[in-house]
Fold:
Amino acid sequence: MSEFSKSVEEGLRTTYARRLFKPFARAIVQYNLVKPNDKIAVCISGGKDSALMAKLFQELKRHNKFPFELVFLVMDPGYSPQNRAAIEENARLLDIPAVIFETDIFENVYVIEKSPCYICARMRRGHLYHKAQELGCNKIALGHHYDDVIETILMSILYGGQVQTMLPALKSANFEGMELIRPMYFVREKDILAWQHAYGLNFLQCACKFTADCAAHENNSKRQRVKALIRDLKREDPQIEQNIFKSVENVNLSKLLAYKDRSGLKHRFDE
Structure:
């Protein structure tokens, strides 16, 4: 193990324990995300969130209160040589034993005009499930964090006309016995950025071979507008982020006009 990787791991036990490892462990305990004899594919996209998640899982494994296995899985959907090299270099720097497999997702998505990013995300997740299952895993772990969760809640309301959230665990409908988990559920993005900058790490900004285009249009995206909205609201009320998060924990069905369950839409005044 390199001295750099040792310093990163020591930092997760000391400087960043409260802000990174503790919320990571809290989500795992609170939502029962890791169970005895699990084999988890820790999915690394090339960004800061999944790289940190990999290091946090390595730290969790060292505690090893019960047996479980980890596979650090990287899917190359058609990265440019520079992006592929950047992912490999970060894995080497951070001492992450990455298993890399290749797909042609980017080439297939390139010709799609309507919702290419949505289709790309669905295809990538399907390939991750398939490869993880092939390697004997029963779970895949994704690096979505607290800020992703609250932004998704607002995006669902403002742009989707529905109230829903990004769940910390979700059983796959298409891959029997597989489950998706999000152990970064309570980790704040500002703390991930502080960790990244402290160690001078450089990660991909967009999991796409058209990274430059993604960056150019980033400020026009719905998610960026929601980020800006939350920042503005937080200036007036520091509790706004917690309130958004709690809104999907404290749903009062008696005050809703309608709601959905597995059997369909239920209108309150039809009951």
User: Anything to note?
Assistant: Confidence is low (pLDDT under 50) at residues 215-219.
